[in-house]
Design a protein that fits this description.
Order of helices and strands: HEEEEEEEEEEEEH
Radius of gyration: 13 Å
Strand order of the largest sheet: 1-2-3-4-5-6-7-8-9-10-11-12
Number of helices: 2
Distance between the termini: 12 Å
Shape: globular
Length: 136
């Protein structure tokens, strides 16, 4: 389930920016984008899913797979608490352990402060979903 959440939570509410937001991995390779209407596309421009304005995430079949609440709380399809993104970009898991941070410029750092990616123009709570709440 977290893997699906990872794929679909490439993030962003359509109303925040006029252009697509991009995601890059730790090697700076382009990995996807979010269009103005919340449509999520992968690196090959294939439709992956959609993030609705209320934070609801749907997969390519329009099935509900989770939600990122406005306060940063992350829940899966069964409404189980997965973690939280704090207002300063700090990311904590379900045990409240620090697992990383989304910096103001979109830089993503893990618990060891190592660079693991970049989320240009992506709201921090959505970027955190992609980089921290996924299965390998």
């Amino acid at each position: 389930m977290k893997k699906i959440l990872l794929l679909l939570l490439m993030l962003i509410s359509a109303a925040t920016l006029c252009t697509a937001q991009t995601l890059r991995n730790g090697s700076n390779a382009y990995i996807g984008k979010i269009e103005r209407d919340g449509t999520i596309r992968d690196r090959s421009n294939a439709y992956v899913g959609k993030i609705e304005s209320d934070g609801t995430v749907r997969d390519r079949s329009n099935a509900y797979i989770g939600k990122i609440e406005r306060d940063g709380t992350i829940r899966d399809r069964g409404n189980a608490y997965l973690g939280k993104v704090e207002s300063d970009g700090t990311v904590r898991d379900r045990s409240n352990a620090y697992i990383g941070k989304v910096e103001r410029d979109g830089t993503i750092r893990n618990r060891s402060n190592a660079y693991i990616g970049k989320a240009d123009g992506v709201e921090p709570r959505f970027a955190a979903l992609y980089f921290f709440f996924s299965m390998p």
